[in-house]
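Ticket #4471: structure output looks truncated?

Reporter: J.K.
Steps to reproduce: submitted the chain below (208 residues) through the standard prediction queue, then opened the result file.
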Amino acid sequence: MNEVFLAAFALQWVAIVGLALMMVGLLRQVGLLHERLGPVGALTLSGGAKVGETAPMFELPSLTGDAVRIGGIAADSRSTLVFFLSPTCPVCKSMLPVLLSVARENVATTRLVFASDGDEAAQMKMIVQQKLGDHPFVLSTDLGRAHGVGKLPYAVLLGADGRVASKGLVNNREHVESLFEAQRTGIASIQDYMARREASAATTGAAQ
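Returned output as attached by the reporter:
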């Protein structure tokens, strides 16, 4: 009886060790896949102020309060995240909880500004329905043109120095967070990241 018990106990440990080895192998493969894919960041469109350039400064009235300045040296040393949206854009509306959450998490370092154009009544309806009243909301076609906004939803992160830190199409939380990561690392966009990787790979290949 003891022999049967010991054999079963040994088989159990063999199975546990085998599963552990399989998990290690699986995690290694996931890590390799992540390394190959790289980060999935916001896709930057051509046009408008480029990353690293000083953005045009705008002084615009806000539908939710006083006038707001977008661009230039920030008086409170915070960055400005400008989110371009439209009441007729379903993806824009689905992103609003994400933007509000990100704004709360980064309130000490970044302010959130909503930007749109078109019918003011439609914008006010969206502001009320989506509870956006705590943040500046501006209407300006020129602001969108200045930043090359051609598709929505689009976001531009301006540093406290008034320069464009990062920008791009934002369809999920990862895209929004990639704008802050780009600001932190100095890598402008996913295109810039991939270009650097390709250049590095080409240099390594040539050296070999």
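Triage note (M.O.): checked the attachment and the full token line is present. The chain is about 50% helix and 20% strand.
Status: closed, working as intended.
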